[in-house]
Design goal:
This protein is an all-alpha fold. It folds into 2 domains: 2-129; 135-261, no CATH class. The protein has 8 helices and no strands. Keywords: Membrane, Transmembrane, Transmembrane helix.
């Protein structure tokens, strides 16, 4: 019976250790990604270092700027690697403590929980440290998704007119013309924002001008809100995008532009 009891205890401990083991597997994948990215950055830096020596003028300045950017990326990746390794070490300590606690009958549950919390916190910090390295791509994805709103709604409104809004069967010609005109502008704004996606860190003036136009349209909705009351849910969503999401995207793009110019 003692042997069977020990086997069951070990089996239970193995089951308890599955969570940190899965966490270790995830950290291993993250380490592979970070190491591969670091290798590509180093290879690119070596190529640029050779080119800088042979070049002069604007080409040399551009390559020096890119070298500074690559150096920043290497620092970020190294920090993320360090935190990921620490998290993996803490996860291993958690697994070891689980077995020691069961074998030696130690009451160290609080210590095990604390070590696991530290491991998860370090992993979170690792992912957070890597955010600046992918910030440009993240902003491009968010802007691309935001562009779907004016492109889809504007295109649909130009094609269908104001009839889908629930107006009477007979729609005044001037209302139809004005509605399609505004919808066309809305569609064009979506296209203009989409042109900012490639090289978004260099499109600051254009991006902020378009954002200011959208914010001005959102402020105009306040007049309608005060005059006739709250609109439908779709227009409330647009109002939130114009006065909430767009200013945040403008600040994000400005921050990214500032970091790339530093």
């Amino acid at each position: 019976m003692p042997t069977l009891l020990q086997v069951s205890t070990i089996a239970q401990t193995i089951q308890l250790s599955l969570a940190p083991v899965f966490m270790l597997a995830a950290i291993g994948q993250i380490l592979n990604v970070l190491a591969g990215r670091l290798a590509r950055v180093i290879d690119r830096a070596r190529v640029l270092e050779e080119r800088v020596i042979a070049e002069s003028g604007r080409d040399q300045q551009r390559d020096i700027w890119e070298l500074k950017l690559l150096d920043e990326r290497m620092s970020i990746i190294n920090a993320a690697l360090f935190l990921a390794v620490l998290s993996a070490v803490m996860a291993c300590i958690v697994i070891a403590m689980l077995f020691v606690a069961n074998i030696a009958r130690l009451h160290i549950g609080t210590g095990i929980a604390f070590c696991f919390i530290v491991a998860v916190t370090l992993l979170t910090c690792c992912l957070a440290a890597f955010i600046p390295a992918v910030e440009r791509r993240a902003l491009q994805i968010v802007v691309a998704l935001a562009c779907l709103v004016p492109l889809s709604v504007g295109g649909w409104s130009v094609a269908r007119g104001p009839g889908f809004l629930g107006h009477p069967p007979v729609i005044p010609t001037d209302l139809d013309s004005h509605f399609r005109y505004i919808s066309g502008i809305f569609f064009a704004v979506g296209i203009a924002f989409a042109t900012c996606i490639p090289g978004i860190e260099r499109k600051g003036p254009r991006f902020r001008l378009l954002g200011a136009l959208v914010v001005a349209g959102g402020l105009s909705r306040i007049v309608s809100l005060l005059a006739v009351g709250a609109p439908s849910a779709g227009h409330v969503f647009g109002f939130a995008m114009e006065l909430g999401a767009v200013p945040l995207l403008m600040l994000w793009q400005w921050r990214l532009e500032k970091r790339f110019r530093a």
